[in-house]
Specification:
The structure holds 2 protein chains of 2 kinds. Chain A is mostly helical. Helices cover 67% and strands 0% of the residues of chain A. Chain A has 1 helix and no strands. By secondary structure, chain B is mainly alpha-helical. Helix content of chain B is 76%, strand content 0%. Chain B starts with a helix and ends with a helix. The chains are: A mainly alpha, B mainly alpha. At the A-B interface, helix 1 of A face helix 1 and helix 4 of B.
């Protein structure tokens, strides 16, 4: 089996990209959570299931 | 293929391991263009009649910014070949080899989808449709079609850059009106003198890239004439928000002064001798055009905030 060794720079930028993606996902979760409260308020719980 | 030294670096890149830093992806969004889009969209939103929850307003601006960034990424994906031969753009992430074209395409499409759907779900589907159309207009109509086929590329394509204040306005009102069309018209008419001033002193770049900009198709003299005509139209349209009653007298005065200076700068370009290789007047007009746009929309923003805060 053949492997590709990542350089130190590739490992470093991969980690930085992973952190950036994590931050964007966390912001999206917070954004939709807050927007739901702003748009619906308590009424979000008063809907037919 | 386990390699070492410099070859190991190449092997890993060939195998699909990216060298791209998050900053390269930020660069794909064209942050400077994005900042102007955010600014004009915010002005459109604040000056529009009606109300929007501040948080949803911020979400809308974020979506418009990301949509503009997506357009930028798609533009850089398609234009990588011409970016590589122009001094102004050769250092961009794709021609520089830091981001692959496929990654840029995927990035642009993902952001476009997310920005449109989020704006639709949280703010307004009308505004979201408008944003989707704007992204399509910039990426397909301008980038893929007009840019390489006609010297009128930035005249028609300029519409894409002029839509953001209408989208911001539509986020509040859910429609299009004479007021929002007026904001569109200001940016639409401002775009040709702004870009042609740049094209005058970067004419060699566009020639090398085979992009049919006005100076290298119609000639320098014709471009200077057209810059002057569009500048007069821009200055006149710049005062229209006051005439239509959507902006204050202060805006009317400031926009008149800024407009006169715009025409004065364009006149200096018109009078610029053919022998002037430094093209100081064209550079001055390019720089001033940004000041003009910022000044106008800063006044509109100020007007809108004053009205909303009830002073």
């Amino acid at each position: 089996m053949e492997f590709v060794e990542l350089t130190e720079r590739q490992k470093k930028v991969r980690r930085r990209r992973s952190i950036a993606i994590a931050i964007v996902l966390a912001v999206l979760v917070a954004l939709f959570y807050l927007a739901t409260i702003v748009k619906f308020g308590p009424a979000i719980l008063e809907r037919p299931l | 293929m386990a390699l070492s030294g410099e070859q190991e670096f190449t092997g890993a890149v060939e195998a699909g391991f990216s060298e791209a830093d998050p900053r390269d992806y930020v660069a794909l969004l064209k942050p400077r263009v994005m900042s102007l889009v955010v600014f004009t969209a915010l002005a459109g939103m604040v000056i529009a009649p009606g109300d929007i929850h501040p948080f949803l307003g911020a979400v809308a601006i974020l979506c418009i910014a990301v949509g503009a960034g997506a357009s930028g990424a798609l533009n850089m994906w398609f234009d990588a070949d011409i970016d590589a031969v122009m001094s102004r753009t050769a250092g961009r992430p794709i021609p520089a080899g830091r981001v692959t074209p496929e990654a840029a395409l995927g990035f642009g499409l993902t952001l476009a989808g997310f920005s449109v759907v989020t704006l639709g779900l949280l703010v307004s589907w009308f505004a979201a449709s408008f944003l989707a159309f704007t992204i399509f207009f910039y990426a397909v109509i301008y980038t893929m079609w007009l840019k390489r086929s006609t010297p009128q590329n930035i005249v028609i394509g300029g519409a894409a850059g002029a839509f953001p204040p209408m989208i911001g306005w539509a986020c509040v009102t859910g429609d299009v009106s004479l007021g929002s069309f007026c904001l569109f018209l200001i940016i639409f008419l401002w775009t040709p003198p702004h870009f042609w001033a740049l094209a005058l002193f970067k004419v060699g770049d566009y020639e090398r890239a085979n992009v049919p900009m006005m100076p290298n198709i119609a000639g320098i003299a014709s471009t200077k004439r057209q810059i002057l005509v569009y500048s007069v139209l821009t200055a006149g349209t710049g005062v229209m928000p006051f005439a239509l009653g959507i902006a204050s007298l202060a805006y009317g005065v400031v926009s008149s002064v800024l407009g006169l200076l715009f025409v004065y700068r364009a006149w200096a370009v018109y009078r610029m001798p053919e022998t002037d290789k430094g093209m100081k007047a064209a550079k001055a007009l390019f720089g001033y055009s940004l000041v003009y746009m910022f000044g106008l929309f800063a006044m509109l923003l100020g007007d809108g905030l004053v009205n909303r805060l009830g002073y």
